[in-house]
Amino acid sequence: MNQPTQSVSPVRAWILGARPRTLPASASPIILGTAVAFTLGGFRWLPALAAFFGGILIQIGANFCNDLFDYEKGVDNEERLGPTRVTQSGMLSPRQVRNGTIVAFGLAALLGIYLTYAAGWPVIAIGVLSILAALGYVGGPHPYGYSGFGELFVFIFFGLAALCGTVYVQMLSLPALAWWAALPMGFLSTAVLVVNNLRDIPTDLPTGKKTLAVRFGDQFARREYLALIILSYLAPLGALISGAGSAWGLLAWLSLPVAIQQIRIVWKESGRPLNAALGGTGKLELIFALCYAAGLILQRVFA
User: Fold this and answer.
1) What is the pTM of this model?
2) Contact, 134 vs 65, CB < 8 A?
């Protein structure tokens, strides 16, 4: 195992391993999903809280196992362009990271027991599939994250499953507005992955990690990112036109200046400078979700 690149306290190492800057990808759809339930009169605070912390724990577990498996497969090495990984840097041992993964998923499963009691068997399906998807992203003999399917699974689990699951555990139904609200969360979460893959083309290519960015090149990845951002902002308009939402949902467009800033970075930069857009896109997703949620809450208040 590599020696630590710097002296870091154990608490700091675990925080770095959890990757707090990535957590908006799981928090944002749950916040917005709760706002959907609220505006439709189905808000329940205990299931909402359990969904929130369960989603955060699943992502932390996914971050730990990605850290571990990328190290074991040799993808994370001294040439890494992204933020420090705790296993590769030696801040935590592979055994520690493996145990952290088990603890995070185990705590998420405990919350899942309560949610199953509150909302029934569909919660089990969502929880089990989410954990299997997290493990399969870079783990196992055929990790789908190495084969160009990462975007599809992120869209499904960080968009559709996270938001619709949040709505379901509160309302025990899935109204059309839930599906419309899930779309931009899936698109923006996928955009975060696209930035990551664009940055890592030089290091992924020699290790055999065939992301879409590696397969089709950097210009494809930049256009993919732009398309995902555009689709995110069209979704609230689609909800309005379809009758599932209202004009209040267009408050999500208040986040456009942040989106434009990230697009400029992605369009011009390569390599390590893209780390700014990686964190910025996560921030964009959270701001978008908060603005959209505010619109939905105001819709309920002024209905």
Assistant:
1) 0.90
2) yes
